[in-house]
Specification:
alpha+beta, two-stranded antiparallel ribbon, binds zinc ion
């Protein structure tokens, strides 16, 4: 196993204590740097069953395999008053995860169950196929005493508050009170919804580039069995081959020139970051912008454009590193893209320099317009 894919987490990052209106929560006991692995936990219980097929007897059988201490920890978990008939089912399903990476499986991790939700999270959860554990990463700097939160419904990034809250209530019987949902002023919240709608529209407009083609999800999407017990070397071989460059643009966007595509991707990153949509998705969004610049360098025609692509490349690297090891070998693909960009940049700069020396007037030519929404407080 590559050293970079081995989780190294510091058990001393957090403690579980009461969280206002949420029962218990996990709080940082010291500052946690972005990209830190906060916790790596193998599931205590895995039921290879669809959620609707799980019965009390399945959970009882699983509990029999646990230690007394683990059983006590299970029974101490919250049991949200969902539609499920028994306390056992409500406890298990209210705290378990059904990751896309493990289709047909429902997993319960006793420690991860203590981490609460936010639509504006500071941590990202990832299934790590190398260690068969769930890894929780800091996707930005987390201050001491700050609650560590992850987004239970990653797809909800692009949903307005009303829909996010509908899903939260349906699944866990809570109404999120994160900053995006309830914080700041009404005007601020309306703007948050507007940003998410814009992001949704932009992402769809640009969907020729898949945002989720990497990592473990790709293994499943390609029909590769995850029931088989893979040797680490086999997994590495699969993951190494997972990276696929973005597909061709869909027909309706074929006529969108490279500069407009870059502008659209840039707009998306500019909205995502203040909305705290960090980690993997932001890394990919920044990456796609650089990819267009590398493939169509003629669209980069000012120093300003060069700096924009540079910034996006740095952005992609920062965020992809914060998503390891789910991204594992994909980090290498980002490194490779950075090298491609450095080569393209040299050609672009020599073109810009020779144009500048030839020019006698002060005409600077067209410049990429950068859409920057006003920063979210
Ligand atoms: Zn929220």
């Amino acid at each position: 196993m590559d050293e970079s894919t081995k989780p190294q987490h510091d058990a001393g990052y957090y403690e579980v204590r009461p969280s206002p209106a949420k029962g218990l929560g996990a709080f940082a006991i010291k500052e946690i740097a972005s990209g830190s692995l906060i916790l790596a936990e193998a599931p205590t219980i895995i039921l290879v069953q669809e959620v609707l097929e799980i019965r009390d007897t399945d959970i009882e059988a699983a509990l029999l395999t646990l230690t007394e201490e683990q059983c006590a920890a299970f029974h101490a978990l919250s049991a949200p008053p969902t539609q499920y008939s028994s306390l056992l089912l409500r406890t298990f399903l209210g705290n378990s995860m059904s990751p896309a990476a493990l289709p047909g499986s429902t997993c319960l991790c006793l420690q991860i169950a203590r981490f609460n939700h936010s639509c504006r999270p500071n941590a990202e959860m990832a299934w790590n196929p190398f260690t068969t554990s769930f890894d929780l990463y800091a996707i930005r700097k987390i201050k001491a005493d700050e609650e560590i939160l992850w987004n239970y419904i990653p797809g909800s990034n692009y949903m307005p508050k009303s829909y996010r809250q509908f899903l939260q209530y349906l699944n866990w019987r809570f109404i999120c009170n994160c900053e995006t949902c309830e914080g700041m002023t009404e005007e601020w919240r309306v703007r948050q919804d507007m940003y998410r709608k814009d992001m949704y529209l932009l992402r769809n407009a640009l969907q020729g580039f898949e945002l989720s083609t990497l990592g473990r999800d790709s293994i499943v999407a390609r029909g590769i069995s995850i029931e088989h017990t893979w040797k680490p070397s086999e997994l590495e071989a699969i993951l190494t081959n997972l990276w696929q460059p973005p597909r061709e643009l869909p027909d309706h966007l074929q006529n969108m020139d490279a500069k407009r595509q870059i502008n659209a991707w840039n707009t998306l990153t500019q909205i995502m970051e203040p909305s705290y949509m960090l980690g993997k998705e932001l890394a990919l969004t920044s990456f796609y912008l650089v990819d267009i610049a590398v493939k169509q360098p003629e669209c980069i025609d000012s120093d300003f454009d060069v700096r924009l692509v540079d910034e996006c490349m740095a952005h992609a690297m920062r965020n992809i590193r914060a998503s390891r090891p789910r991204m594992g070998p994909d980090v290498q693909a980002f490194e490779a893209k950075r090298e491609e960009w450095e080569v393209a940049k040299q050609e672009i700069q020599s073109r810009l320099n020779s144009r500048a020396t030839q020019r006698t007037s002060t005409d600077q030519g067209p410049t990429l317009r950068v859409t920057k929404p006003s920063k979210v407080a």
